[in-house]
Amino acid sequence: MSSKNIGIKDVATAAGVSVTTVSHVLNEVPHARVSPETRNKVRSAAEQLGYGPNRLAQALRRQRTGILGVVIEDVATTPHTGRIILGADDAAKARGYNLMVINTSSSASLESREADVKALLDRRVDGILYAPACLRNVELPGIAAGVPAVLVNGVAEGATVPAVMPDEASGARAAVQALLEAGHTRIGFVKATGDAPSASRRFQGFLAALAEAGLDGGAAPVESGAAGVQGGYEAGRRILAPEDRADLPTALFCHNDLMAMGAYRAAAELGLAIPGDLSIVGFGDQDLIATSLQPSLTTVAPPYYGMAAWAAGQLIDAVEGTVGPASTAQAPTLLDCTLVRRDSVAVPRP
Amino acid sequence: MSSKNIGIKDVATAAGVSVTTVSHVLNEVPHARVSPETRNKVRSAAEQLGYGPNRLAQALRRQRTGILGVVIEDVATTPHTGRIILGADDAAKARGYNLMVINTSSSASLESREADVKALLDRRVDGILYAPACLRNVELPGIAAGVPAVLVNGVAEGATVPAVMPDEASGARAAVQALLEAGHTRIGFVKATGDAPSASRRFQGFLAALAEAGLDGGAAPVESGAAGVQGGYEAGRRILAPEDRADLPTALFCHNDLMAMGAYRAAAELGLAIPGDLSIVGFGDQDLIATSLQPSLTTVAPPYYGMAAWAAGQLIDAVEGTVGPASTAQAPTLLDCTLVRRDSVAVPRP
DNA sequence: TTGAAAGCGCTAACAG
DNA sequence: CTGTTAGCGCTTTCAA
Q1: Which of A57, A98, A146 is closest, CB to CB, to B100?
Q2: CA A267 to chain centre
Q3: Which positions on strand D lie below 7 Å from a protein C-beta?
Q4: Which end of chain B has the smaller Cβ count within 10 Å, N or C?
Q5: How far apart are CA B69 and CA A350, in angstroms?
Q6: From the DSSP assignment, how many helices (H) and strands (E) are in chain B?
Q7: Is the CB atom of residue A4 positioned under 7 angstroms from any atom of strand C?
Q8: Average pLDDT over residues A162-190
């Protein structure tokens, strides 16, 4: 149906006007004064011919492609790439842009990642959205070449590029607050070992929420494990089977959904029903996991969609000059996580 | 580092030759006879200036963009999009192509999906890879406009477009064979309700494998449930708690990983250890699920990566005229599934 | 063996 | 109010 061979020229002759006029009306050029009749003639001619602009030629002429490059590390193994692409695509589409997506390997050499970026640059993308595999400090391939770039879910080494990240501390706080609101006062934390920033940010949020409620965070049961199902199971067992059963927490906040899954198993083995005997909140909103668990898991959802949409918006603003270099904020922008309430939280047993 | 403002012209003056010559050597034009010295001059000049071709201008001139359009239905909620993008990207990159990815909604009107395709067509993509949300009969938006298209993991209504699909029957057969090899003879099937083609194809594979082994498929315990965790649980309970305990199967093949997850729970409740008392094989290889279960789940992996790579290759072949319209095969191409062996299968108790 | 020149389809001065 | 024209950066006849 669309375009194929008819160009602006064909529309022009069909409408009996010049190409200029066609270009003017089709692009709604501000200062071009064209009579309404002519406008209609052009419009209907274009319609009838099924004209679609050749975005390639447009881009060449305007020095702007309307394409955003999206570099995704390990696209196949990162569970949230879909949400990032969707967020970026929605934001892009809304402003007439499209996405050129390219995979890159987080483990590959910097040169190889540089080549991936170069491919995008040769295509003259208007901006680049870089999505690291995990929230970490990225050694960013030289995006020098004058196109704006934004980092989604990570920070750049040396903060050379604006970045968006989830506000994990506030997300963790929201999770704990939900537990507090349900009436829990003895809340345990299943922590991830290692010094990943995420681990401590979520823990800080946990402590902050407790402190705000006038509870002693220092007394809360906290155990660590590897950031997976097994680690969650082990940490969960340690918390749930203490020397003194009276100390048993009535709720657990887990570093991530996988660890929450492990905690479920620990609880099951110890004869604790969820949420009857024990409420659990996770972090990450890996839907497959969260909705498959029984009961389904209440968890904190990082704003992948929102971060990507924000990033795409920033890029477009920068391209279109809507905003100056002020956007090159030094500190990463933090976006709120949202608590997804499912069935793993209930009021504690009296 | 890359390109920016230097064009072929700059390289030409720097090398003291004409643009024609530069174009000839940089593109390694077959019939162009250029002296080796000139070649070197050009090459080094290009290198020094950090020249990169403007793919836009190239495309306009050559009438070929080197871009493959990838339309993905519900990109955010389809667990395998990552693998599809990776497969297509690897295949594309290998031949100098890139991917323009656009999300579309499987539930939206045909017009809205048509608009998404049109955006790609306006960009003059060389081919379109369409990936439906699930393996179903797709009402494909008119891709008439002369660009080749391939359907990945679905079939087109009226078979207007070549398609690739997983060979589910053979995948199911491989799963059951693994169970047979381990020594199982009483194998149950956890089926998905509904008349989805997948459900019956996997069931057919199950029966075929049994028949090949000389076993009576008709006598095998088969129960159905909704294609999720709960359905798997319910069907699992029915199979595992029969009137006559002697009939208990020693292994279960499940329609998908989610149902397998439900079967795990059913087994646990009935005091059956996996894989000691009961072996289980799933289908789908949703890594988050399969690797998170305890024990990790042996499952059949559909060739998402391979299908996308195959599709991209087909498109490029078609574009480059390597292949005639012969590729417009009527029957969908079937690609083998692979069995991913993990820890949920063992030899049966004697 | 190399170069001049004509476009690919479109936009944006600049004239009328 | 509308039309002429010169490119955007590159490829590709055709001539030298």
Answers
A1: A98
A2: 32
A3: 1-5, 7-13
A4: C
A5: 59
A6: 12, 14
A7: no
A8: 96
Distance in angstroms: CA B237, C1' C14: 82
At A29, phi and psi to the nearest 5? -65, 130
pLDDT of residue B349: 86
Residues B90, A73: Cα–Cα separation, whole Å: 13
CA of B123 to C1' of D8 (A): 17
Nearest of A118, A50, A282, A162 to residue B1 by alpha carbon: A118
Distance between the alpha carbon (CA) of B21 and the C1' atom of C4, Å: 12
Q: Do A103 and B114 touch (CB under 8 A)?
A: no
Strands A187-192 and A251-254: parallel
How far apart CA A180 and CA A215 sit, in angstroms, is 10
Contact A261, A229 (CB under 8 A): yes
Residue B305: list chain A partners with CB under 8 A: 76
Contact B163, B151 (CB under 8 A): yes
Contact (Cβ atoms closer than 8 angstroms) between residue A164 and residue A335: yes
In angstroms, what separates the C-alpha of B78 from chain A's closest C-alpha?
8
- Residue written as tokens 């998170």? B292
pTM of the model: 0.92
Give the tokens for residue A297: 């898991």
CB–CB of A3 and B288 under 8 A? Answer: no
Q: What is the least distance, in Å, from the CA of A127 to any CA of chain B? A: 13
- Any atom of strand C under 7 A from CB of B77? no
A296 half-sphere exposure, CB direction, 13 A CA radius: 15
DSSP B297: P
Write out pLDDT tens, residues A21-51.
999 899 887 776 778 888 888 888 888 888 8
φ/ψ of B32, rounded to 5, equals -85, 120
Provide the edge-to-edge strand list for the sheet that holds B298-301. Answer: B222-225, B187-192, B251-254, B279-283, B298-301, B338-340
- In degrees, rounded to 5, the angle at the alpha carbon of residue B30 between the alpha carbons of residues B25 and B31 is 100
Q: Which helix (H) or strand (E) holds B340?
A: strand B338-340
Contacts of A161 (CB under 8 A, 6+ apart): A130, A140, A143, A149, A150, A151, A328
CA B123 / C1′ D12 distance in Å:
23
Contact residues on chain B for A99, CB-CB shorter than 8 A: 100-102
Task: Give the residue from B108, B100, B152 showing the smallest Cα distance to B125.
Answer: B100
Express each pLDDT in B173-210 by its tens digit. 999 999 999 999 999 999 999 888 899 999 999 999 99
Whose structure tokens read 């993991």?
B153
**Which residues, 6 or more positions from B321, have their beta carbon under 8 angstroms from its beta carbon?**
none
Backbone angles phi, psi at A184, to 5 degrees: -80, 140
Q: Write down the mean pLDDT value for chain B.
A: 90
Residue A3's nearest nucleotide, by CA–C1', is: C9
